[in-house]
User: Which sequence fits this backbone?
């Protein structure tokens, strides 16, 4: 949500419109083009140079149709042919989830491609960004995004994992590579980093430019079942390792949200990857990173397993404090990179005592002063959304496995 | 569409209901279970032991909500909480596309996973089949489904291709494998064989049982732009090779629907595959197969390129006649397998002069009598749908690359 957006909501509240149903009253710039993540040959949804999203759907017998994006619902208008059309306020650059609401039914827009977020496959839109070149598909050597099945003893089931191999992987059958375990956010799954995140395209471009060491990326589903009524951040964040039955030390309260995935990752997934892919299977060449919930999981799992991970990336998911460092034996010797990032709007709206713990910039500076390779990145003009995380991966990938 | 289904339509016409809006009046067996291709944790859609599909959607302000499956629309009923619910007539075993219609808007069901067919990403349902074991995900060694990008000179763009590598591929870095180019149908794309077709699961299971030679499968998008007003089968099928500007010899009329993909396949895709995957790059170890439009493309492209393909699979897409054989120089020496298949309901409803040409069984028998390894397969109780093609791939994979 950007400032214009907030202004419109505030104005709506003042003039008495319900805050969940907006009709966009401003002048709209008429330079709309189909979104880059539309289904083939679909003309809608469209985006204009202001970042407004225009949708259109045939629903001749409907009473009310709305565009639901950025937690705001915008009423569409019906033309004589039964087609509803309308647009949102300007959105931030990058990727956003959205839905259409038809007479109270929340459904995907038939015009867009679908992405898994908010615990559903739903519509997505791409607002062109000034820096979109770093995740643009180009005629450079391409790696592969490989869909794999493997058996997990922890869950007693065949599980699904996407693995990115760099462009040169099959050309160098004797060479081994560092490996990054990369996690999505709450309500997302193992498809998020490839689809919304464009992780493989970002890596192909960085490797072609010689900016990143070629490495393998493993993307699994770290979603766990939350108890009903669970709200992230309902308790103040604690510090330290992910130890079962130590409620107050866990940022998610009594529910230990990282423990199940920690067992899958360490007992099942890492052995599978290490016996089926040419990774360098040591602590020095193993990284973990994640966004939001995946960042919190990264923090907890790496702090508990410093014998296994030397490189840590936390994107919009908290930070590591000196208290964490002091309670994790050998941290200074073992950890070669701590990377912490947020979208600028997240920092503007940050509440002390919120789900992401202490001041991330202050924590990062304290680690740096203690001689730890600690990096802080702020994504300009973005919120808790994928554009922040694409940029975070891009920055992290340049730094990782170079110490 | 099965017989019960047809009966209901006929009954509806007799008693004057519109044939596009059915209310299911029969007694429904109450043993519904969530479909196996639902989104995670979604309770609807459901399927019962008769093969009826029950959907449910919250749409409190809607006037009319329908389930649209098998070219029939079934009215749902609204309960007091604003939830609409209802079911279809029994469907054939296997996979079917469907949509929900809300006050005239055709949208995907928010409960199902989405599949690309009918030129859109839409809902799919899985009716449990008596033979579903052959495409069930099991704890056997798994191959990989690899998403690749490559540059096509023909289209001057980066294109997308899925490539299945068998389970042992990465364990035998010196071994080379036969390769099958496998095509989807009209309105589908390169994701069809992996998602709806379960091609990788079928292959993993066959290889684990020792029934198929391990081979690589290449799945690209062979959709071409059809001119407006185009109807497949509007002209009688001709014979012979795919030669530009020979309208009557092409089953699609004047429009040469295979020529563009032939260039992509032979000039761009095959060289990419042969320099990036360990295939045996000769005619003996190269197959092409496809379903419906993909089967017609297979027929035309292989007949024109017998120096490149020795194994041919045509699933619900026509057959090869002795006239074809006689007009393709060297056919008898070069072709090691011709496999032709249909769903049983397609043969029951077959019109002479339809889009798939002459009698496929008679054509197959004639080839066999001429000493060609020619196989005919009929999928029991299925129509022009994915269950026919899963079974066809299963049968074809057992036979291919063994001569």
Assistant:
């Amino acid at each position: 949500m950007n400032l214009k957006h907030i202004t419109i909501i505030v104005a709506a509240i003042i003039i008495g419109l319900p805050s969940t149903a907006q009709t966009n009253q401003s002048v709209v710039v008429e330079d709309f083009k189909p979104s880059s993540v539309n289904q083939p040959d679909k003309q809608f949804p469209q985006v204009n140079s202001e970042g407004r999203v225009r949708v259109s759907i045939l629903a001749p017998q409907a009473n009310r149709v709305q565009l639901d994006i950025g937690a705001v619902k915008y009423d569409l208008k019906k033309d004589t042919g039964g087609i509803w059309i309308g647009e949102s306020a300007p959105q931030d650059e990058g990727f956003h989830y959205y839905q259409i609401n038809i007479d109270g039914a929340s459904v995907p827009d038939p015009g867009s491609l679908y992405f898994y977020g908010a615990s559903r496959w739903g519509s997505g839109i791409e607002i062109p960004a000034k820096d979109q070149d770093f995740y643009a598909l180009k005629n450079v050597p391409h790696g592969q995004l490989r869909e794999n099945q493997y058996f997990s003893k922890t869950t007693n089931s065949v599980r699904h994992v996407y693995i990115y191999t760099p462009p040169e992987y099959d050309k160098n059958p004797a060479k081994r590579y560092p490996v990054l375990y990369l996690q999505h956010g709450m309500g997302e799954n193992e498809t998020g980093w490839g689809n919304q995140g464009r992780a493989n395209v970002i890596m192909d471009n960085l490797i072609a430019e010689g900016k990143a060491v070629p490495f393998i990326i493993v993307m699994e589903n770290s979603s766990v079942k939350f108890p009903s009524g669970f709200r992230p951040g309902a308790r103040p964040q604690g510090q330290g390792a992910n130890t079962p039955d130590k409620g107050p030390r866990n940022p998610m309260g009594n529910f230990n949200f990282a423990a199940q995935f920690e067992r899958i990752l360490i007992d099942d997934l890492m052995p599978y990857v290490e016996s089926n892919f040419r990774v360098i299977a040591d602590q020095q060449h193993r990284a973990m990173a994640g966004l939001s919930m995946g960042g919190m999981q990264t923090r907890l799992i790496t702090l508990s397993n410093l014998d296994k991970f030397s490189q840590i990336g936390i994107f919009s998911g908290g930070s590591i404090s000196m208290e964490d460092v002091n309670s994790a034996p050998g941290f200074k010797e073992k950890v070669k990179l701590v990377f912490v990032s947020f979208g600028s709007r997240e920092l503007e709206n940050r509440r002390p005592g919120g789900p992401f713990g202490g001041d991330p910039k202050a924590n990062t500076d304290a680690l740096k002063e203690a001689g730890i390779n600690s990096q802080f990145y702020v994504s300009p003009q973005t919120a808790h959304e994928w554009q922040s995380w694409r940029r975070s991966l891009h920055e992290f990938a340049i730094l990782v496995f170079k110490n």
